[in-house]
Amino acid sequence: MSMRNFTIVAALAALSQPVFGQEQASERTVAALPEALADTGEMAPPPVPQSSATEIEDIAPEQLVFGIGRPATEEEIAAIDIDAMPDGRGLPEGSGTYAEGEELYTDFCSACHGEELEGISELGAPGLIGGRGSLASDSPVRTVESYWPYSSTLFDYVYRAMPMDTPGSLTADQVYAISAYILGRAGITSDAPDTVLDAQSMAAIQMPNADGFVSDPRDGNANQ
């Protein structure tokens, strides 16, 4: 018998032998099929996961002492307690003009959001103005002008998170000025160079999409 024929015979003989351990393998199981809807026969949606918070009793903070760190001082808390609310609460003292904001926008904002506030998609920076009336269309454009319901949101976000490379570095006066420029360019407030924004005037601004949201009826209860 030639070597080639011997190799073929040996291979066929090997294939005909049982695989060691195969008989001892446990029986395979499969997941149960999801239930079907009676009306349509389509798969029923899975049950809604339940929060484990429903099984936890009230937590006593005094028992959660780990022996590290220290209580924050009033000064440390004040440094990050900068929430600006729609009714003006939390807006700090200070003011800024449209003209000041135009210069500040060029220095701190235009590199990401564009010279004309149009946004730069390659950087992930959205446009800030335009899109008014587009939200119900097939091509909604969400900007400060078209989407945000409160002017305080603009102040709060810029004050807290901008510029991207040095968040929180702008003063309250600078943020008022930048807000005056953005809102002026959007036609929400005047674009006159001497237009001033401060806590009182900012809280009085009516944004174009102020009525485009509904109140959340939930009260934060874990069972909801």
From TrEMBL:
Residues 1-21 form the signal peptide. Keywords: Heme, Iron, Metal-binding, Signal. Residues 96-186 form the Cytochrome c domain. The keyword Disulfide bond does not apply. InterPro entries: Cyt_c-like_dom, Cyt_c-like_dom_sf, Cytochrome_c-type_DH. It comes from the Bacteria. SUPFAM superfamilies: Cytochrome c. GO terms for molecular function: electron transfer activity; heme binding; metal ion binding. This is Cytochrome c. It comes from Roseovarius pacificus.
